Amino acid sequence: MTNMLQKIAGMAGMTDQVIATDFLISTKTAVRNLTFALTESVTPDVREVLQKQLTYAMEAHEKISQYMMEKGYYNPSDIEEQLEVDLKASKAALKLAK
């Protein structure tokens, strides 16, 4: 049922990309926030917990990035290719808005 609704809405190929992109952005935010919290913490126990969480977040970022690169959703080393991906996503979003 969900797949059919996605096709009708014109989102069949975009849903996975949108979810992955949102997850990547969230993970980047977590890395940044954990790093900030780590530099502000003063107790060894808190630092240890934050360091573990930072490691997990960086590992998640790596896995999500690799997944997105394999799917062609994310091209951090090729700005021209990334621009094409972004333009395609923008056009799809504009179509949905109409």
UniProtKB/TrEMBL annotation:
Compartment(s): Spore coat
Cross-referenced InterPro entries: Ferritin-like, Spore_coat_CotF-like
Keywords of this entry: Capsid protein, Sporulation, Virion
Keyword Cell division annotated: no
One Pfam family of this chain: Coat_F
rRNA-binding recorded as keyword: no
Chief location category: other
Family: Belongs to the CotF family.
Name used for this protein in its record: Spore coat protein
